[in-house]
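pinned: reference chain
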Amino acid sequence: MTCGSVFSGYDYLVVRWHNLNERRGGLTMSQGMLGNLSLSDTQGPRKDIEDKLAGPKGTMWLRRLKRFLRGENPFGVPKTFEVTTNGRSGDQHITDLEVQGDRVDDYAQELLRGKEFVATDGKAYKLALIMGDEFEDDKRTNENIRVEAAKRGYLDPSVELAPYVREMFSDEDLEQMGLWALIVMHQPVSVSCGFLSLLGLRRCVGGRWLNTFDGRPDGGWSRGRGFLFLVPASN
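pinned: its structure tokens
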């Protein structure tokens, strides 16, 4: 995570605090108050928030903070959410994920370093979640899931978005949704072993993973999977 994203998260919080203070006509910080609260009472929580935003999982905590301030459930995976890119290469993503304690399997690293990974900077993408339990067990294949996504007007996301999504959501978020995996439904890519593969998040006893999964059209899934598609900008 870049320093810029840390400061932008903290600035977001500070601006909200100042705006709330002004609307309430609260006392100024110079008087030792923040609204109706003493600054001494807020120092601990403020420090905790700063530490979370500045830490290796700052992206996840910023997402939770923004949802909390909007009065939304900060946990779980929303039906739709936005991802904004920041120009990082595949190698940078691998390093950043490993620093925050995530694991990236060998084939996932291959995809992040491959030609299909194209880095963008400052682009906002809206992703939509289709849950595996929306399909009958014998109908839950890649082909059928893509047909349903097309009916809803969704498009294929890019390979680039997978590591951003891994940063955004913890295994606890997946667990709250009843998910063991969250698949980014980009066009499948053939890895060195010859298998068509998709990138996705996997919840595991051994820790958070960015994995590759079966990308064949007839590849089937169990119920506890979720599938992410791109929402067109016009929607």
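why pinned: The chain has eight helices and ten strands. The chain has two domains: 3-69, 80-231.
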